[in-house]
Design brief:
Blueprint: H1 3-34, H2 39-64, H3 78-106, H4 121-155, H5 157-176, H6 182-199, H7 201-224
Domain CAAX prenyl protease 2/Lysostaphin resistance protein A-like: 124-214
Transmembrane segments: 41-61, 81-99, 119-138, 150-168, 174-194, 206-224
Pfam families: Rce1-like
Length: 225
């Protein structure tokens, strides 16, 4: 695949992800609330079911446009898994620091960013599975496996990782309609990108799953505490 085609494919996948996630997490959730369905339940279902559906559609699109699935980097070796675990440990430290920066920038304390109040047991379980495990797998497949791979091909390693991290943080800002986690999101985007480039998408997925799971457990614990 040529450099220009790689960049075009990456741009199309980024636009597709943002449009589809926004439609599901904003449009569908608002529609559900309008007819009396718990929006928290719908959002949790979107995370658990909608995200892998988005990843499947965009992966199919990439394959149709000539992407080689071997380039996605899913090598489940002991080395990759171990690197993912070690990177997660580093990530917890980095996220703690980034959260302090976000707090200082936006004048927020930890409770101000907690969205878990009033969770039912069913929604809590869906969040643990969806946000903790399913979302990281779907996001790593698309954002690191497809987008970063193509941007690195087109622009080289530093720019490919950096632009992917910026786009990854940007899509969260767009969907969440908020910038209050921007430092944390950028930190995670760069961390996942470096881990993916060095050890593969399986490795960055392990890192992402561990960080998301711990974060989600904290949210659920706070809701039931």
């Amino acid at each position: 695949m040529s450099r220009s085609n790689s960049i075009t494919l990456a741009a199309a996948v980024v636009a597709g992800w943002i449009a589809l996630e926004f439609a599901l997490r904003r449009g569908l959730v608002i529609a559900a609330a309008a007819v009396g369905v718990d929006p928290g339940l719908v959002d949790a279902l979107v995370l658990a079911i909608g995200f892998p559906a988005i990843a499947a559609v965009l992966s199919w699109y990439a394959l149709e446009r000539g992407q080689d699935r071997e380039r996605w980097g899913w090598d489940w070796t002991p080395r990759a898994l171990g690197a993912g675990v070690l990177a997660a440990l580093v990530g917890f430290v980095l996220v703690a620091g980034a959260a302090q920066v976000d707090s200082a920038l936006f004048g927020l304390d930890e409770s101000a960013t907690t969205r878990g109040d009033g969770l039912s047991a069913a929604i809590a379980l869906l969040l643990l599975v969806g946000n903790g495990v399913v979302v990281p797998i779907a996001e790593e497949q698309v954002w690191r496996g497809i987008v970063q791979t193509n941007l690195v091909d087109g622009w080289g390693v530093p720019a490919g990782i950096a632009v992917t991290a910026l786009l990854f943080a940007g899509k969260h800002v767009i969907v969440d309609l908020s910038v209050i986690r921007i430092t944390t999101l950028l930190t995670l985007g760069f961390l996942f990108g470096v881990v993916r480039h060095r050890w593969g998408t399986a490795s960055s997925t392990v890192t992402h799953v561990l960080i998301n799971t711990v974060s989600t457990v904290g949210l659920v614990a706070a809701a039931f505490g």
